[in-house]
Amino acid sequence: MFVNLGHGNNGFLTAALIGGALALLDRRPTAAGILFGCLAYKPQLGLLISLVLALTGRWRVIVSATATVAVLTLVTTAIFGLEPWRAFLGSMQFTRVYVLENGGPGWEKIQSVFSWVRMWGGSVPLAYAIHGGTAVLLTGALVWLWRSRTDSRCKRPRSASSQSSLPLTSSITT
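RESULT FIELD:
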């Protein structure tokens, strides 16, 4: 919490969007999709969310999330032009090397399996391997959990498992 407040990070907003979307998933799928779509500023989280939504057949959520991202992209481009998109794409290698692989901001600010391995002295290839294995295992567990036939008491553990798995499957969650 103090790192989030002290560095102006968006962790509170991200957690609120994910938590809100998961809470609305069954009752208001369109609203849940809009909240997931508003997470477009964290594209690294979209892979796991999209996979779980697709494998559980939540098509209305996917359609509304996709529409939200499209609208946000069009509005951003209309206001600022193409330069922010070029800058984003141009900064990907720097972010991968300086932030992720070398821990430029400090390992304590990057909550991921990858950064834990690097912080403990592991090599970059080892960090990618352990992180990839963890992501595959957690993704499989989440898909199993969300697809299993359970009663309504399992909705909270599903949501909690999803929210806690995101930083462990994403290589960078600063």
